[in-house]
Amino acid sequence: MNFVDTYISRKAIELATAVLESGYVTAGKYADKFEEELEIRLGLINPVTLNSGTSALYLALAVAGIKPGDEVIIPPQTFIATGLAVMMHYAVPVFADIQYDTANIAPDSIRKKITEKTRAIIPVHWGGYPCDLDEINAIAKEHGLAVIEDAAHALGAVYKGRPVGAISRFTALSFQAIKHVTTVDGGALCCLNEDDYYHAKRRRWFDIDRENAKPSVLGEREYDATDVGYKCHMNDLTAAIGIGNLYDFPSMLKRRHEIAGRYRTALKGVSGISLLGYKDDRTCAYWLFTMLVERREDFIRALKSRGVPASVVHLRIDNNSVFGGTRPDLVNQARFDENQVSVPVHNGLTDEDVSLVIESVKKGW
Ligand SMILES: Cc1ncc(COP(=O)(O)O)c(C=O)c1O
User: Fold this and answer.
1) pLDDT per residue as tens digits for the range 43-86
2) pTM above the 0.85 mark?
3) H/E segment holding residue 17
4) Is residue 338 part of a domain?
């Protein structure tokens, strides 16, 4: 049994082969089609395909106008990409505390971290469980801040009836190798506002308006870059893989829910374990199945001896030197960091694997 899984469908291989054989591999009709499919199939708003989730965060911060010295509020419970994307703009990541029972950023802690330099908030949907987006967007509105959801774990998550990717000003998605839908590496930035969408599309490719910059008689496109643009677009080869994999996503997400549902029923009340506190008004995309576990190292060792890989995913990031070291005031983060551990939840698991996970946990450690 593997802890994580990379899923590549037959269709993805077929479409990727067609792109390779066509001789046209850069951004083109497949990258456009992947955007259309994300919109139609998942209800995402204005998805702009990119070469990674990190690029999606970086580009969102650029389009939001983040400048050196600006402050951006983020949780420490995330992958280092979230904080580094802020620092790539020479801006300052300010760490807010999380909720102990969800690992998501706590709105009351966000309020305490706002200063006159704050410009944006990046809530991270830990393991695919949506943050308190109404509260966070209300705080952002009150203080004129941009909300950039880091939804790297949360493709297919739903918050109060709306898909993640259709709620806040920006949503960053990742299609990295072990995500729900992979393009090998890739990402997308969803933009609620048309103006942000226009600029995200330009700035992902050198700030050139690709759709409108037509070649002159000389053969070269005529364009005028007015902003700093980057090179972080998605190419047709990776987009083709994404399209092929996306077709299977609904059934794969359903399977993740089935597995997680079995875990939640069977492991509720098991001594030494607390399940995360998920509310009925939102649906977790279950990229991870994280639990809070007493004597975590013994737990990991015991499960390993029974053939089950359990693992910690992403320790708090603020303690990296680049961010200046552990923030002592984040008490929930400190507790979560001591107790969190995840068990496998992915499409490579058989029903027997799921039973083995449950039995292995119930046997104790
Ligand atoms: C929370 C979070 N944000 C951002 C990223 C970065 O995504 P990518 O690897 O596609 O750049 C990851 C990657 O795993 C992540 O877990």
Assistant:
1) 999 999 999 999 999 999 999 999 999 999 999 999 999 999 99
2) yes
3) helix 10-22
4) yes
Domain with 322 in it: what CATH number?
3.90.1150.10
- The three-state secondary structure class of 71 is strand
- How many domains would you assign to the chain? 2
Residue ending a domain, among 216, 248, 280, is 248
305 CB-side CA count, 13 A: 9
| Chain length of the chain | 365
Q: Is the CB of 150 under 6 A from ligand 1?
A: yes
**Would you tell me how many other CB atoms lie within 10 Å of the CB of residue 319?**
13
Inside any domain, residue 2: no
Residue 115, token pair as written in the block: 């200063």
Q: Does any ligand 1 atom lie closer than 6 A to the CB of residue 155?
A: no
Q: Is 168 near ligand 1, meaning CB less than 6 Å away?
A: no
Q: Which domain holds residue 15?
A: 10-248
Q: What is the CA(53)–ligand 1 centre distance, in A?
A: 5
Whether the Cβ atoms of residue 342 and residue 287 lie closer than 8 Å to each other: no
pLDDT tens digits, 234-292: 999 999 999 999 999 999 999 999 999 999 999 999 999 999 999 999 999 999 999 99
Residues 29 and 110 both lie in one domain: yes
